[in-house]
Amino acid sequence: MARSWWGWGNAEEALNGEEAAALVGRVQLLLPDHDFSVHRAPDPAALNLPAPRVKPPSALAALCSDDPQDRAGHAHGKAFRDVVRNLRGELRHVPDWIARPRDEADLVSLLDWCAEAGIAVVPYGGGSSVVGGVEARIDGPVVTIDLAHLDQVKEVDPVSRAARIQGGVYGPHLEEQLRPHGLTLRHYPQSFQFSTLGGWLATRAGGHFATLYTHIDDLTESLRVVTPTGISESRRLPGSGAGPSHDRLFLGSEGSLGIITEAWMRLQDRPTYRLTASAEFDSFAQAVDATRAIAQSGLHPANCRLLDPAEALMNAGIATGGGVLIIGFESADHPVTAWMNRALELVADHGGRIRDTKHRGAEADTAGGASDSWRSSFLRMPYQRDALAQRSMIAETFETACTWDRFPAFHAAVTSAAQRALDEICGTGVVTCRFTHVYPDGPAPYYGVYAPGRWDGLLAQWDEIKAAVSEAILDNGGTITHHHAVGRDHGPWYERQRSDLFGRALTATKKALDPAGIMNPGVLVDVR
Fold this sequence. Notes:
Elements: H1 17-30, E1 64-65, H2 68-73, H3 80-87, E2 97-99, H4 104-117, E3 120-124, E4 142-146, E5 153-157, E6 162-166, H5 171-178, E7 183-184, H6 197-203, E8 220-227, E9 230-233, H7 246-250, E10 259-266, E11 268-269, E12 273-281, H8 284-295, E13 303-307, H9 309-316, E14 323-331, H10 337-349, E15 353-360, H11 370-390, E16 393-399, H12 407-426, E17 430-439, E18 442-452, H13 458-475, H14 491-497, H15 500-513
Parallel strand pairs: 2-4, 3-4
Antiparallel strand pairs: 1-2, 5-6, 6-10, 7-11, 8-9, 8-10, 12-14, 12-15, 13-14, 16-18, 17-18
């Protein structure tokens, strides 16, 4: 299937006519006066993209593409504002070339060329960034380096349960290569089908596990990184107290220090025991307390996702007064019934009522229930977002984390700021909330906003809403991002969140590893 150049995923998997009509019908019940005219993406060949401003050396020419659709498809990520700009044909910062190294030696040669010529480099995995992470907002020449050819599991250590994996491998292909060994990385972000291991590592992605192994960091044994000044490779160890960590320097560096070409990753046996359940509550406060009790119990469920009433209704089709909690346990070693029973006791202690409980096989089944309704909707959400954007609707998310003691006041402040912004800017709108991950000391709330927009002002409307909620998040003690990364869109708030001293140390590191300032300029720190 062909990737969509302007929106999420594969073009063939976008909402079909029947799905789009059903979606619009539901929204029309709430917004009968909205203009649902459909805006189609232009043909990239008709965009009249500027000619490349630089020419690759002859030795590298075979690695580089200036095809209009290739360049247009690599110009933006997949955030709401990226989709809207693509639909409008507004591609201000288009890479001059898309380079696809065949191996690490090619990558070194590309970085050498760019450093010598002063050409900005944007590392590119799957392009699923929703924070401006793959868009070079500069006026000079840009080469986007797409790691699609570095997509192999190179070595498997079944004794230690680890594998050496190249950074350009997409999620499905990674799991296909591990399956014959009976192993799995078991890291499933929403972007799993359209994102890569290197991208997960560079952005500290959050994945499948709602507790314990929440981020890709927790599954990382060692990294190999190509920088403009050399190659850094950390030693394979289960743990180490030998000074600051090599890997922690590059995890979350978002391509600003170098490009992750390989990683040794910690694997698991494929689970054979799986049990899921869902519960509903009369109040959201009860639901939050129950979720906290489970997070602090030491049970470590694989899934522990709380949906507030609006989220449950809009994205799982469940009407509830206080919210729905979806709980899941899994193991390759032992039945998980005892763990689930204890979690459900905690749910009952906090006023929850069990909706459904079921066993599942090693692979996901298609049986009904709240968890399946949510999972199905979860995978289709980005395509639904694109269809709404085409019809001048604002549909976007923002995510964060805070400590449990702050959450009630934090949640009230953030939702109030979001609702106030929607009412003032759009006239009305809906704010939803779910917990994507939970920790003993706090949750990671993930908010959705849905509002009518104006096609000629859609970007300005969203940018104003985004600024309002970002201010509320920082002012009330949250992080500007829990797992979406910083990119360029979160830069102003990230600079306020980190200390000045750490900012200076990061800048010095950037200058040491990337003295020409070519690596993803404008992300985290900018020395150009």
